[in-house]
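cron nightly-structures :: item 1 of 1
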Amino acid sequence: MTPEVEQELAHTLLVELLAYQFASPVRWIETQDVILAEKTTERIVEVGPADTLGGMAKRTLASKYEAYDAALSVQRQILCYNKDAKQIYYDVDPIVEEASSPAAPAGPP
């Protein structure tokens, strides 16, 4: 097979795969149902340049799962890496041990 034929086949394959990707439905609603209802996830962190999926998840929580969460006393956090870094990373203060005082002399033997 010549390089030109290989390149033409690769181009055709790429176009077909992209067409399939664009035509396939996004299963975001089903994904949210698994994450929010079946797994009862309490903390979701979106890692990306914007809070796009987190915003959609917050709207879904407000419209579909508010009563569900209240009934089960579930507290959820939907965070975005770029906006909520301080809440995502736990800062633990180091434990400072008290300096032990020198031992007192035991006295005369």
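cron nightly-structures :: done
The chain has a mean pLDDT of 86.
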